[in-house]
Design goal:
With about 120 residues, the protein is α+β, with helices and mostly antiparallel strands. It is about 20% helix and about 55% strand.
Length: about 120
């Protein structure tokens, strides 16, 4: 009986660990997660995008660019949100081409500029 109980406990621990890892990192090429890059001219500061599983998005360390939604259409990432500044708030939608996506790197093309992001590791 003790052996069965240990086996059940081990299976439960394994299931919880797997679920936690999946929530934290996602699949190797899953775009969901927290993606960051250095702030230009400030090597110790980071900015980026948080893409949640339910299509919600948020900005990381970008007070004037407030993302709130995201969708994927083919190889395009469409980010929606609000641009905040100069006493006004303007709704926007940016369409970026997903050039490369791996477990830890995402490259997005905006017009002729490539933006490289690194997946933030779970804390």
């Amino acid at each position: 009986m003790k052996l069965i109980t240990r086996a059940i406990c081990a299976a439960a621990i394994c299931a919880v660990a797997t679920a936690t890892l999946t929530l934290c990192v996602g699949k190797n090429t899953d775009i969901e997660g927290r993606w960051v890059q250095p702030v230009p001219g400030q090597p110790d500061a980071w900015q980026g995008i948080a893409l949640e599983p339910d299509g919600k998005a948020s900005s990381i360390n970008m007070a004037t660019l407030a993302y709130d939604t995201w969708t994927i259409e083919g190889n395009r990432l469409i980010l929606g949100g609000k641009s905040i500044g100069n006493g006004q708030t303007i709704d926007f939608s940016d369409t970026l081409v997903v050039v490369r996506l791996s477990a830890d790197t995402m490259v997005l093309r905006m017009d002729a500029m490539d933006l490289e992001y690194t997946r933030e590791k779970c804390q």
